[in-house]
Each structure stands twice: as structure tokens, then as C-alpha cells.
């Protein structure tokens, strides 16, 4: 017989330390000889990113390739991405990477103790003015990359960096290949090195709004002369990849869905390969993000879907789609070699992994796991794709995780408390995978619902565009609609409904607490509270993001003030926990401090915790632990259940 205990008070073996210390962020990966190189985060080292080599053919221990103090992380577009590349062939094999602290590019040769700088120190008041990312191997002992230049008005170029170190003290040795653009991404050389493609976009667009695809002859000197072959201000082009010297694949959403296309140079003709109401790409928050790869001249290996994704083989001539059945809720192909696919995968039992898949037999094995010690299966919830309608009759998507621990159930007649997760972005998506933070709650008897409100990706451009001009309205309406549906179906206790989110999700938290009455507690992690402050004081990549989410500034200044929770704190009547990093450049601490002060003036129970040395998102183990334990203690105090973490004091 199951033991009956109040929801929230079930004893759990999943601790905050397990969630933090036992989880390492995984980045890209590639084959190298008889090894696989993986980018991994190290929460115990202040969130440092390094590269680790795993042997394919033996039980040799993993080897770290980039030692401290180097941190393999780019700040291009502030969110970085694609911060390293393997260089092989005409020189000694090596790794090129961007170092976080100084944003210089370094060359780490295998077997050498220290890396060699390839680009100059560009720091101005300790803030690098030149930043680099998305490296690809170029001709004649060079690499091509994105260069972000913040010395004046921010611009980006595709550049060519010599590998001999001649640019380490002389920035003029870096060849600028492309005309300045506000943003660029995805440089790709065709197989014979005669053509270069890339994408660009300008303010006020974000890359999911509209990008253009460039094509240029690659010459030996000067700036390349290019032509635009696809895209526009309202068509989003993603991830160009060369199939051969005459065909360039890319993902475009002209139809309303990100589907694959082929551009043929010899005929100047574009062909849509697949016509499906499914997404073959997603939002480009980090440069270098990929959703497919070229398997050979005949086929592409693509990840596609809506709420979950699957792998498919798409024929580059006919557009035929063959699904490849694998037991993953999400999959991202990274590289293929000799019939083996290297992929980033997610599942409800294993979490995120770097996985090796035999494309003929479909046998697969994990190279490394994000979650180092998997929770006991008896502690893990299942996920349900939940749908309801908002007041306008539009469909809203969410992922539902009911309280679960084998051998336990709530007391008779009791409904469980629920925590509403609101993803950041807001142009992003909550994905179905083993999430230790979700299991941390559900194994204690607290339900979790992860809402993909209007504006989320994964459901086509029309769904994504529902948030245009309506941030703080549509996201709040859709999130409250999900909670009302859970309450109406007697899944959740209406008196114990929490909501939490970070960054843009923190904005929706504060807006929901301000403009609705369905939530009884809220947690904002580095959340946006003041739109005027954000639009006036944030990094370049998102500096005009608000123009589409709210309205043009300063023309719509009144709307910015009307929407901002900071101007309506008097409407918040439930307790609030604020968690903030003191080095956050995306959402500065001042935003959380203003909310805390306003709550204090009104006598609303709250706590404000400032984490030293953290930027936009918490990376240090001790801080991840404190944030999670503080969140549980906060809910326990408000919802009235006992828990095993230190109490926090509410002012």
C-alpha cells in the first residue's frame, strides 16, 4: 500500500546538490581519429566550459583538452555559441577556440601545454571590443569566423584569421571578408572552397523574424562581392549547408513553417524539399546552432517535429522523408562518419546526452551524460502533452508533470500544489526531457506544468507571431488559461499555485502576478520588470527585440510603461522570491532591486537574493544549489508543507 503523506512533504533522494553538481551542460561534439571531442560545462569550476576527449575503442579515462584558466565560451551576440572548432589537414591537428574572459581566439595544438593567441587583446575597461565565434576551416592555414566589432557602432563581419599568430598583435592581419552587417551567422565554404555563404539580418529583426542568405565568390583579396539568394524581412533563413559544389541546402519559413530547401547555383533555382506543418529548425539564440547535417550528396539527416522532435532522412533530390525510429524525445544531429551519427539527444529517462548511433542497425550508446548520476527511476515523473484553449479560443500547448514517487501518494481528498514553469526567450520552447529540477519538485509531491504560450517556437510562425506587440498580454493569458484548465480538471489545488521563470520567463512571472489572480506565489530569476530600462540598457542583439514584442521605441513609450510590472507592483498581493546575478548584463540587477524595494514599501512578503559572480543564468554549483533550495523553502513556507531544506526569511 502506498504511504499517504501531504503533497510537498514526500521524502526525496533528489537533492539540490544532485541537480547542480550532478549536471554538466553539454555543447557541440565531433569525431577526431578514434576519439570524440565534447564541449562540457563545469559548474564546480565557476561554470567554466572546456573540451573533453572520449576514446571510442577503449576504456581509457576521458581527457581534458583545454586546461584552466581558459574558458571555451564566446560572447558574440552576447549569448555566444559555436566557440570552438577542430582544425585538421595541412598543419598539425589543433583546436581553435574563443576564450571567455578576453574573447581572444587561441590555437591549442594536441600535445602542447599552452594555447597560442591568434587575435589581439581588444579589451577596453576590461570589456573585449572584438569577439569571435563559429569557426570553420579556411584555405592556406586560416580559419573563417564571425567577428563582432564593438569599437564604435556594433557591426559584424565574416573574417579570415591566420593560424600563424601574426594577428595576435596586429588586428589588420585579420582579413575582413564581408561588408558590415548588424548581425551575421553561419559562414560556410563549399567543398572546393570557391564559394562562401552566410546569413545576416538587421535591426529591428531578430533572426527568427527575417534573415537573408548571401552567396559570394571566394577570392584571395579584398571584400567579397555577394548576392542575396533567399530570405527577407519576414522570411527566416537558417543554417545553410553545402550538399556539393552546385547545391546549397537551407531551412526557410516562407510557408509558415521552417522547412528544408535547396538552391542550385547553375540554374539559380530554389526548390522546397519538404512541405510539412512541422519545424525543421528553431530560434537562433546561439550562433552555430544546427538542426540537420548533410549525410552525403543524396540525403540530409534532419531533426523535425513540434512538441517533440524525431530524426529523419530527407532525400536531397526528391524531398522524400524517411523517419528513423529512435527512443529520444529530442535529437540534434552533429556529425556523421562511416555510417555512425554523433548527436545530441534527450529522453525522459536519461536526460541530455551526446550519443553515437549506428545508422544501419540503429544501435546507440551514450558517450557522455549531462546528468552524471541519474535519479532513481522510482523518483522520475512521466510527461503528458497538455492542450487547452485560451479565452480567444486559440490552442495553448504545455507539458504536464504530475507529482510522482513510487510508494507515495497524497492524503485523502487533497489536491497537489503546482509550480508553473515559464520558459525564457520568450521566443523559445519548453522541451520534453528528463529535467532534474522538475524531478526535484515532482518527487516531493509538487506538480509542474511547463507552458509553451503563444510566441513559443515549435508550432510554426503563426503561433510564434501571436506574441508580436503583445508580450505581457498573450503569454499571461495563455499561462493562466493552462492553470485554469488544470484546476477545472481537478489536477491542481487552486490555493497552491506557484509560478517561476528566468529572464523573459521572469517577466511573464511578474506580469502574471500583477495582471492575474490565479497564482499564490511567484519566483523571478533575473527577470525583466522594467521595459524602459531594458530597451535603454541591454546588449545589442536584443536592443530592438522589444520593438516586435511590445512596439517601436520611443514611439510606444507609454505602452512600455503600461505593461511593465514595476509600475503596477501595488497589484501584486502574493509572496515573491527574487533571484539575481550581480554581473548580469542582459537584465541588470537594478531591475530586481526596484521590484524588491517596491514590494517592501507595500509590505508584500518577499526575499531578494543576489548571487556574486553570476551573469545571466546561474553556472556556479553553490549558487545553483542555494537558488533551488531557496525556491523549495519559499514554496513550503507559502503552501504549508514540511521540507528538508533551510528556511528562508521573507521580509
UniProtKB/TrEMBL annotation:
<keyword id="KW-0378">Hydrolase</keyword>
<dbReference type="GO" id="GO:0006508">
    <property type="term" value="P:proteolysis"/>
</dbReference>
<feature type="domain" description="Peptidase S9 prolyl oligopeptidase catalytic">
    <location>
        <begin position="437"/>
        <end position="640"/>
    </location>
</feature>
<keyword id="KW-0645">Protease</keyword>
<protein>
    <submittedName>
        <fullName>Dipeptidyl aminopeptidase</fullName>
    </submittedName>
</protein>
<dbReference type="Pfam" id="PF00326">
    <property type="entry name" value="Peptidase_S9"/>
</dbReference>
<dbReference type="GO" id="GO:0008236">
    <property type="term" value="F:serine-type peptidase activity"/>
</dbReference>
<keyword id="KW-0031">Aminopeptidase</keyword>
<dbReference type="InterPro" id="IPR050585">
    <property type="entry name" value="Xaa-Pro_dipeptidyl-ppase/CocE"/>
</dbReference>
<dbReference type="GO" id="GO:0004177">
    <property type="term" value="F:aminopeptidase activity"/>
</dbReference>
<dbReference type="InterPro" id="IPR029058">
    <property type="entry name" value="AB_hydrolase_fold"/>
</dbReference>
<dbReference type="InterPro" id="IPR001375">
    <property type="entry name" value="Peptidase_S9_cat"/>
</dbReference>
